[in-house]
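Q: what sequence does this backbone want?
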């Protein structure tokens, strides 16, 4: 049985004061009780990881883990501006998002680099959250499944059995930050296709890997999405900035 996982991706948002308010509000909500068998994490920008790790520890917020939004494909060295996976581990991260479409589009990240980042994250003892997804044009021309399964195939070819220790996030690019959520059935169909693709490599890996949906997840659509058999939780951007909305999605 795969646990349901909800991960908040703050992107480039937050500040010292609002982060503190967010974590205290989420802590109060989680202390009132959360559904069992679920996992929750939040991914603040790099400079706030230490602050958020400290707050989570001080409040003894056992329910909430910390994650980061990216990691370098390299171990260490002359890579100005990059952050090594080992550093994120030291800061208390358990999850690292890799291959988010905003990084693929704005920083020209290709599948090979995404797989190299995932390997670094695994080697540092954390869980990569590998993002895949198609553009509106690719969907409208009937190529959505081919594109997404192609992205998965590249990850399989590099990561092999280690995929069992990764999470996958299906994030249709046309649904990210647009308010245009994929219908639960459209999302389920793609999650099923991803799982089928994984099963061609290894049935155990396919059964074990959690596949999260991302793209305009909100409190009012999370219940329907999470009820789908191949949707194992959500990667939540905009709605995760509001602690009450994040809590509502975690409880959906
Ligand atoms: P969104 O972003 O929830 O704001 O659509 C999701 C994501 O980019 O991970």
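A:
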């Amino acid at each position: 049985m795969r646990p349901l996982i909800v991960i908040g991706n703050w992107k480039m948002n937050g500040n010292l004061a609002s982060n503190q308010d967010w974590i205290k509000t989420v802590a109060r909500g989680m202390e009132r009780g959360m559904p069992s068998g679920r996992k929750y994490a939040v991914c603040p920008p790099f400079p706030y990881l230490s602050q958020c790790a400290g707050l989570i520890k001080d409040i003894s917020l056992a329910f909430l883990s910390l994650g980061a939004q990216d990691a370098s494909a390299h171990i260490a060295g002359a890579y100005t501006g990059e952050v090594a996976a080992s550093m994120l581990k030291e800061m208390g991260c358990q999850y690292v998002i890799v291959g988010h479409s905003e990084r693929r589009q704005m920083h020209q990240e290709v599948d090979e680099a995404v797989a190299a980042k995932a390997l670094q994250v695994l080697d540092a003892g954390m869980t990569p959250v590998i993002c895949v997804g198609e553009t509106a044009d690719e969907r409208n021309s009937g190529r959505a499944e081919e594109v997404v399964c192609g992205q998965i195939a590249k990850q399989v070819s590099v990561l092999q059995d280690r995929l069992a220790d990764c999470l996958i996030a299906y994030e249709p690019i046309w649904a990210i930050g647009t308010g245009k959520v994929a219908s639960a059935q459209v999302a389920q169909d793609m999650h099923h296709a991803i799982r089928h693709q994984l099963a061609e490599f290894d049935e155990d890996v396919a059964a074990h890997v959690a596949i999260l949906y991302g793209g305009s997840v909100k409190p009012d659509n999370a219940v329907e999405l999470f009820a789908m058999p191949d949707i194992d939780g959500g990667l939540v951007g905009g709605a995760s900035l509001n602690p009450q909305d994040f809590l509502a999605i975690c409880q959906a």
